[in-house]
Design a protein that fits this description.
transmembrane; T2SS_GspF_dom; membrane; Bacterial type II secretion system protein F domain protein
Length: about 280
Amino acid sequence: MTVVWGAVLAAGILLVLSPWLWPANERREAPQRDGRVSRMLDEAGFAHASTMRPVLIAAVLSALFCAISWLATGLGAVALVAAAAGAAAPFTWLRGRARRLRRSRRALWSDVCDLLISSARAGMSLPDAVAALATSGPPPLRPAFDRFRVDMAASGHFDSSALRLKAALADPVADRIIETLRMARQVGGTELTAVLRALSASVRADATLRAEVGARQSWVRGAAIVGVVAPWIVLGLLALRPEGASAYASPAGVAVILVGAVVSVGAYRLTIRIGRLPEPRRWFA
């Protein structure tokens, strides 16, 4: 009996001291992710993925590319360049996917604005109008709005649900729309439909202009990729021959490979930057 009373007393003391032993701020939800990797994941459509996943994939690809290059050529410099290329491959793919997502979604945001205007005119509340996009919105955007609908039904808090929706969409135009809705929700006003109508016209004009300019400048990226890849294919073919491998194994050959890698990366990035249209920045992201 003494043991039972001792256990009850210990449990009571533990419950009394629990607010100091485990403060409330330590039991809150995990803080928002930050950093370049998390932002790349968000913009590529993997907002719920772990930031360690692309890092682990980069490490595996780096080791794989390094081993294959070493077994094929026996040159340490080539293996080093291949390892660097393998480490950069996942992040390059994430950036490309984010760019394709922005391009495919650019023409859809004007339809989202039009649907929100129709819902506002029909007398729907802002949470219901945004949640309705899970069924009436453009198909590529419906999963994100469906998660907002579920989140809104669970929490009942529009502001936090809108912030999570903005993080899931990770698009500059979506930021403008959601921040406009948050402002209208917080301060009210009768100019929401006019603001959304002006935003829809601006987004539609910007999407048309970017599509036209992008079609005319698509050759720049193709030329940059060919200009970077072609010399390394030739280097790989030369390194497969014994005399070529012995030449590139010398100090001068190693210097040529390393300097060539630096020049290739610099020239590629410079070409892409010159031919790239400036992307709009995200709002409060």
